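Lecture notes, unit on binding sites. The following record was shown on slide 14. It pairs a sequence with cobalamin.
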Amino acid sequence: MRDLGKDAPTDSFVSAAKEMGADILGASSLMTTTVDVQKEVVNALRDASIEAPLLIGGAAVTEEWAKEIGAHYSSDANNATVMAKQLIGKGG
Ligand code: B12
């Protein structure tokens, strides 16, 4: 696992996913002013032909938003582990 830290630039998701051959990516947003970056990440991953799913969450994020931008949503950390396993095809 690699933690990209806070205020992670969109490109850092693409480069880390490529370097690691990531199975799944995650992005948190706690403020409504930062949720749009999640959409930019989805688009950047698509442009780079990275097929790993993006799981999003955080106080400012809703399931509807995840559906709108083509990402996956989990409301809490416990469920995130279950979803991550399902998304990478390892049960759960
Ligand atoms: C602690 C806190 C702070 C701390 C942060 C300390 C730190 N180093 O992290 C401090 C005091 C610095 C802070 C500052 C600010 N904050 Co603040 N803060 C919070 C608070 C109270 C808790 C956030 C938190 O850490 N929760 C603990 C974690 C474990 O819980 P969680 O975030 O809910 O995460 C869970 C799920 O959401 C989910 N999840 C979260 N991320 C992800 C990611 C993935 C991939 C997945 C699957 C799941 C997932 O799983 C977690 C565990 O179950 C929230 C209130 C809230 N309800 O969230 C406001 C909140 C996020 N803050 C808010 C605001 C406005 C600010 C400031 C802008 C205030 C200001 N005017 O300066 C600044 C912004 C600073 C910045 N640059 O980011 C608002 C945002 C409102 C909005 N609509 O955008 C909130 C929602 C409070 C509110 N209701 O108004 N804040």
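Take-home: The chain has a mean pLDDT of 96.
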